[in-house]
Amino acid sequence: MTSSSRHGAPLDRHSGTLANEVEGYLLLQAEREPAQREAEALCARLPWLTSAQAEDLARHYTEQRLGLTRQALQATADRAKRLRGEYETRYATLRRTLRRRHAVCACLLIACSTAASAGACLLAR
Q1: Do 65 and 35 contact (CB within 8 A), yes or no?
Q2: Gyration radius of the chain's alpha carbons
Q3: Backbone dihedral region of 8: left (phi > 0), alpha (psi from -120 to 50 degrees) or beta?
Q4: Separation between Cα atoms, residue 35 and residue 45, nearest integer Å
Q5: Please, which residues bridge with residue 10 across strands?
Q6: What single-letter DSSP state applies at residue 47?
Q7: Max CA-CA distance within the chain?
Q8: What is the pLDDT of residues 39-85, one digit of tens each?
Q9: DSSP code at position 11
Q10: SS3 (DSSP) at 3
Q11: pTM, rounded to two decimals
Q12: How many CB atoms lie within 10 A of CB 118?
C-alpha cells in the first residue's frame, strides 16, 4: 500500500485503515473459492453422506479453512508491524551514529583548518 493517492495527496490514517480492511476482505474472498472446491472434493470422497450432511460438512470445512487463513494473514501482518518497528529503531540508531560521526569530522576539519591558518599566519610574520 502506498502512502499517497493517485493524485499525489497523502492518505489520512482512516483511508489507510479502510484500504487495509478492503485488502483483507479481498484476500479472504479469493481464498473462499478454493476452500469451497476442497470442501466439495472432500464430500465427493464420502458418498455415504446425505446432501444435507455434505452441505453442512462443506460449510464447516470452508469456515474453518477461512478462519485459518485469517489467522495466518493476521500473524503475517503482526510480524510485519514488529519488523517495521525493529527496522525503524535500528535506522534511528544508525542515523544518530552517522550524524555524530559527521559532527566529529566537521569539528576536526574546522580545527585542522584553523590550525593550518594559524600556522600560515605565524610563518608569514
Answers
A1: yes
A2: 31
A3: left
A4: 16
A5: 4
A6: T
A7: 111
A8: 999 999 999 999 999 999 999 999 999 999 889 988 998 999 999 99
A9: P
A10: coil
A11: 0.61
A12: 10
